[in-house]
Fold this protein.
Amino acid sequence: MTTRPPLYCASDKEVFDVLMASKQRVSEQVLHSLSRDRGIFYGQGASRDWLADRISLLPHDALDLDSIMDRRSPKPRAEKLTCVTLSAALSVEEIKNAVKQYAESDTKDETVRSSQSGTDRLVMDVDYTEIDYGKTRLIQRRSKTAAIEFIVDGDTTVIRFPANDKARSITNAIKDRIEANKKQTIQADEITLDGLNTAEMRTQFFIELITKLKGYKLENVTSIRVDSVLPELLDAGKADEDAAEDGALNLEDDQSVELAKEKMLHLVRNIAMKGNSLLSSSEYQDLRDKGFYLSAVIWRSKMDGAQTIVEFEAAFEDPEAGRGFKYAARGAFYAGKQGLTKTLRPIPESQKQELLTLIEGAAQAALQKLRPVASVITNGSDPQ
């Protein structure tokens, strides 16, 4: 069921806020263009806020407001994805039936479409409205689409969806309908760092991920985020904080100054770094020696037997808990007559599906390799 978005009128203050909300997309040149469309010409020396104020006082009908909204709307960014693996051998027809039941339920402001690709894949597209009350009223409502894929693979079914709360709630609703139809509970597994409770193990997860992509060789790491807080280190961190507050360190002594710096560094929760060859940089190595671990990474890998270089991204939404794994194939540098393209180019959808599957497989393989090792470190026993 769909409902028509409410119609609205706009005050001059709201039009002014919209015109001023995005300096890059609504520049002085754009404002001059809006005024010229009305047959009004202002001097080239007029400031941006003065132009926005004058234009906001003019009458605006629905078409005028739509024109302004189109000019200031950013291009939608491709969202990072996440996935859930259902431990059940499902047919595409069973999934399609659950999607149909969801579409026929009371889903306000949602439009549901689905399409089957081959005998083992179904794509569910849900158009919905997102409200951001932190923005001015005219741009609070944003239309978005959640593309949710169901991939049947033998005795398991992978559900791949955008890494946001709305897509997750839809995915959970579909899973509930499948369980109700089959009259059984289905286990759902996600990629988490459960069991990897040391900084070394968590960093090693990302090292395994970026170096073990089948058919690709690591070329460069261009962006990383490192975190310092692990669950079992929270109490220790609080003790350091209390000690600092109590003045336990004598800062007049050189040795105490260095110790204070070390303790203050441990109070830093995360650090982001951008550049080239970051994992071999002295700055990263210094942070790693101090107990920081990788929680997000953007890297480039070269395709075996080709010049193509693909840029990937992987991160955890909640680094401390090791939950909310999200990932993306951001784009590629393709070979041409003048060498590799200078900027990232979009990846064809068919190839992107293969790359996303590679990331998922590499992440699962990394966990299968590291969890027995982590068990030995934690329990001092042989891995099962």
Remarks:
- The first strand starts at residue 81 and ends at 86.
- Residues 12-72 form one domain.
